[in-house]
Specification:
Distance between the termini of chain A: 22 Å
Structural class of chain A: alpha+beta
Number of domains of chain A: 1
Oligomer: homodimer
Largest sheet of chain A: 3 strands, antiparallel
Number of strands of chain A: 3
CATH architecture of chain A: Orthogonal Bundle
Strand content of chain A: 15-25%
Number of helices of chain A: 4
Radius of gyration of chain A: 14 Å
Strand order of the largest sheet of chain A: 1-3-2
Helix content of chain A: 40-55%
CATH class of chain A: Mainly Alpha
CATH topology of chain A: Arc Repressor Mutant, subunit A
Largest interface: A-B, 21 and 21 residues
DNA sequence: GATCGAACTTTCCAGAGTGGCAAGTATGTG
DNA sequence: CACATACTTGCCACTCTGGAAAGTTCGATC
């Protein structure tokens, strides 16, 4: 490889972590809508990344509804930054 | 998706086309060494991209050896540029 | 406090993608 | 013509990804 992180290189994963990189936490449903994926798909990606230590998730109540909040852990941010740096090294060769 | 091209988003594919983007043609063996993949893997990626119209390949003789030269077609360059642009849109949100 | 419904979670499944190994093929060289 | 080189192809195994649907959980409501 070229320093690309296989855990976050897939398109959906990359969009997930880049979306989360801008905020401290986001609601599951909001992310789901932003990525335009099904519940099950997002749930599976999230649990895979939680298990990898890249995300944390926390259950709460918001506006009378149960919601799950997810966000990047420090390790997740670090992995994203390294992945993005590696990606830039590859694509900066273009042009 | 977010404009990412599934034909060139896989790491090996991306490295292949970015490597070729800098030159007009490259030897199969040189590319194989640059990407550090096996003969069969490179051969299969190349034929997939040739079939997609992204690469051209041509057989020739060089220094007493048969060599295959591969390079991006205009369509391949266009696809790469669009893919890179889409990738930048995604990762520029980071930081 | 039993029931309902929303919000995920998990299971099951199908299909595509990727790579390794080994056998096959083609062709310049001696 | 025999041989070696340089890929090419077939076969296989495994992982990844996503969809559908059933399952689970727990706050809200009555």
């Amino acid at each position: 490889m070229a320093g690309l992180d296989p855990l976050i290189h897939a398109p959906t994963r990359l969009q997930l972590v880049t979306t989360l990189s801008a905020v401290s936490e986001a609601e599951f449903a909001t992310v789901r809508a932003a990525l335009d994926v099904s519940d099950s798909v997002l749930s599976k990606h999230v649990s895979a990344l939680v298990e990898a230590g890249y995300l944390h998730s926390r259950k709460g109540v918001h506006a009378g509804r149960r919601t799950t909040w997810i966000g990047l852990t420090p390790a997740g941010r670090k992995a994203l930054h390294e992945h993005v740096a590696a990606l830039r090294r590859v694509i900066d060769a273009v042009e």
